[in-house]
Amino acid sequence: MTEPLHTERLMLRLMRADDLNDIYSYQSDPDACRYLPYEPRSREAVRQNLEVHSKRNTIAEPGDYLRLAIQSRLTSKVLGELYFRLDSTVNRSAEVGWALHPEQHGKGFAAEAASALLDFAFDRVGIHRIFAKLDVRNSASAELCTRLGMRREALFIDDEFAKGEWTSTAIYAVLEREWAARQS
User: Fold this and answer.
1) Domain count, the chain
2) For a tag site, which of 3, 34, 153, 168 has the least CB within 10 Å?
3) pLDDT at position 184, please?
4) Confidence check: pLDDT of 1 > 80
């Protein structure tokens, strides 16, 4: 991915080192990290992750991923992030995920950003099926999946021990043809 994606209010682009303050503001927040696979991070941990993620810009082989900053076009502030990982080249499947600063919840930014990412994945990368894995307690992400036209395909009960407790995982997915039908 060499060029940012633009929506009405957002720019989706590769993360950069100068995003540190904005990303640290939510990755260090316990509420923002509640359903993420990591505990709140230190400033140094965020810096180290940014160093790694900012170098990832290719989706060619299974396991390749992008971490995209969700940047406000109005304020230039990073509001959150998107995750896109190529799962299989044979099956043309990919995983998506998102995290948003709690102050930005309820404003439609996650839906706007995720919709643009799905457009990119289906139209430019040639993905056939996109799925999201989320903690079943994360009702906001489940609602977002539904708004995006994703259906719940699976529920795994107590499949992960995370942050000191057993958690259950829901899988949501949408196919290329389903996405195209919604867009027309």
Assistant:
1) 1
2) 3
3) 81
4) no
Angle (CA) 151-1-41 rounded to 5° is: 70
Compute the 3-state secondary structure of the chain and give helix, strand, coil in percent, each to the nearest 5. Answer: 35, 35, 30
Q: Under a CB-based contact definition with an 8 Å cutoff, are residues 70 and 109 in contact?
A: yes
pLDDT at 54: 85
**Can you give the CATH number for the domain in which 23 is found?**
3.40.630.30
CB neighbourhood size of 148 (10 A): 20
How far apart (Å, rounded) are the C-alpha atoms in residues 79 and 92? 29
CA distance 7 to 152: 27
Quote the distance between the C-alpha of residue 106 and its chain's center: 16
Mean pLDDT score, 35-53: 94
Q: What mean pLDDT is predicted for residues 57-83?
A: 95
Average pLDDT, stretch 92-100?
97
CA angle, corner 59, sides to 146 and 135, nearest 5? 35
